[in-house]
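Dear H.,

Thanks for agreeing to be a second pair of eyes. The structure we're designing against is below in token form, covering all 226 positions.
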């Protein structure tokens, strides 16, 4: 897969989209890491990422993401051919930069993007990297490379690869709302809601609720009210 690098501003938009909406497709990143030279470091890196995601305190977030980045750096040194190690570095570093502030860290953004680029070079079927790239195409302004039509197949493929993923479903539902397909968006948001409840992900539940409200009642619900 050939990966086009966006501008630093473009990456900022993409990572912001990944954080306010879901960028991570998989219900547990830790579970997907296969045994290998960097497995232990990568799993620990993902655990710190999840701790950061679950915190509401920026200082605490920075501590968790920084520790996750340190472990991901180690994982890349241990196994430079590990897609999971590179994605763990992308995710922790990107979240750290966003939390700390884009403006003062903008010069680091191209290096962060390279980690997503490398992830997809090593594993074109990495569901979370596909979801992140799909989210980028969805959220970026068109003049920075945004394209909903390009987002859709990436997100569809991410869901195929990870049937339990909540994030990609929510992003794809958002795509369908942009494409004026509320019925398709409603179906995806409802499925995402069920999965988010099962996986105890309150942030995703709130976003699914918002998408369901935006999509409005389905034909059967409308008919029942008559």
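And this is the sequence the design step returned. I haven't edited it by hand at all.
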């Amino acid at each position: 897969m050939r990966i086009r690098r966006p501008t630093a501003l473009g990456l900022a938009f993409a990572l912001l989209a990944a954080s306010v909406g879901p960028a991570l497709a998989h219900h547990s990143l830790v579970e997907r890491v296969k045994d290998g030279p960097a497995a232990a470091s990568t799993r620990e890196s993902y655990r710190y990422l999840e701790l950061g995601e679950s915190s509401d305190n920026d200082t605490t977030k920075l501590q968790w993401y920084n520790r996750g980045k340190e472990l991901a750096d180690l994982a890349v040194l241990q196994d430079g051919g590990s897609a999971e190690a590179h994605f763990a570095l992308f995710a922790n570093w990107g979240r750290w930069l966003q939390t700390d502030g884009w403006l003062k860290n903008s010069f680091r953004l191209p290096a962060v993007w390279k980690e997503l680029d490398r992830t997809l070079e090593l594993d074109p079927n990495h569901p979370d990297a596909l979801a992140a790239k799909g989210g980028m195409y969805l959220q970026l302004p068109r003049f920075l490379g945004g394209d909903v039509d390009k987002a859709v197949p990436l997100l569809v493929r991410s869901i195929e690869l990870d049937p339990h993923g909540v994030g990609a479903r929510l992003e794809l539902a958002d795509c369908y709302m942009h494409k004026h397909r509320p019925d398709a968006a409603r179906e995806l948001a409802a499925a995402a809601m069920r999965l988010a409840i099962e996986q105890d992900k309150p942030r995703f539940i709130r976003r699914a609720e918002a998408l369901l409200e935006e999509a409005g009642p389905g034909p059967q619900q409308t008919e029942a009210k008559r």
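Two observations from my side: The chain has two domains: 8-149, 166-217. Residues 1-6, 16-23 have pLDDT under 50 and may be disordered.

Warmly,
E.
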